Amino acid sequence: MRHLAYFEALADVDERSTRWAELTAGLFCLKLAAAAARGEAPPARAELVQARHLVGALDADTPLARLLHQVIDAFRLAIEEPGPAGLAPLATRLSAYGLLLQSASDWAPAADVFEVVGELAALCGDGELRLHALQYRGFSLRRAARFAEATQAYEQLQREAERAGSTHYGLEASLSLGKVAIQRGNMPAAERMIREVIDRAEAANARGVVGKALHELSYVAAMREDYVAVLELSYRAFELAEEGIARHERLLHIARAFMLLGHARAARDAALLIASACEVQYTRSLATVLLMEIATVLREETVFERHRRALAVEPLTPDAEAAYLAASGSGLQAFGRRREAHAAFERMLAVAERHRLGEYVVRAEQLLRALEREDAAVADAVAAPVAAPGVLRVARAMSALRDAAGIPG
Known about the structure:
Blueprint: H1 4-11, H2 18-37, H3 45-56, H4 63-80, H5 88-103, H6 107-124, H7 127-143, H8 147-164, H9 167-183, H10 187-203, H11 207-223, H12 227-240, H13 244-260, H14 264-277, H15 281-297, H16 301-312, H17 318-334, H18 338-354, H19 358-372, H20 389-404
Helix pairs in contact: 2-3, 2-4, 2-6, 3-4, 4-5, 5-6, 5-7, 6-7, 7-8, 7-9, 8-9, 9-10, 9-11, 10-11, 11-12, 12-13, 13-14, 13-15, 14-15, 14-20, 15-16, 15-17, 17-18, 17-19, 18-19
């Protein structure tokens, strides 16, 4: 059934909700785009009027409403210029809608959108957008835990990248298949695949892909609980990052590795670099959650409360909200505020159940049971810092970067 992801999402929401209106408007526009991708006649005027009416019911100031209005405008351009070339603006704007869904963690609908984008791109003869759509469809499917379909998308991307002579997309597809192996828990296969990508990327002088692959290899090391390797691989990946978004994502991994190695202050240096400069709210929010955890470990209640209050007024994705509530409850418990801690863990459980975040459901239930037993949510005894040379080198580098940025410690 086409667009099943939208129908499944609609089945879980109230018809009077904003979420219902957003999904309905997006689905109607997507169905019109899918018809165009099949080579059918452009939408009739009455269909565009209906689409405009559905989008008009949304808050006009939201990025979603603006994007969907642009999608409808693109249909008008397609009517004025019949044929594949007239569909190019529609494919581009629909791709932007897919990216917006990804930013909201709407993975299954995003996969549906990128499938249509890929069809439109093929019809328009836009090879670059076609490969882009396959990559992002695979990414969305992988994040939705639909691993078999994600594998198919990435394998298709491999084949089409080879035909198009695109080394970049070929490497990205191979790396993404390694990510699927990680998420399926097949660490030996994942490590083998990722190391092969590193060898090929180094031979092609594709530094960006090498950095991404090192970053993924650090996840494999984390599964082995080799946190020194996690830190060293993450730092190598950080040094190869070509733009701010990737640098900040890798800094977050560095900060978490420092925490696991008992270096709370070095973790704080890395997290402060993210919180002060990152433009991606999701990554910035996770860094602030980590700063709450660090303040709890260091028993700095005033600092903890400052970060907690700052995030309380931020719009958070479901997983970020669950992480925030976990850190809030653990900190509140550590500082003797048991009633507030209980409320935070209850909210965490509600968020996790509502959004089907299985890992956080389990974690929230564990935290609530621990609170009832009056166990410490955060261990009183912090592990002794690991003093391996590589760890200390990266710690000094983080401190120097923080000083250079003028951020107080």
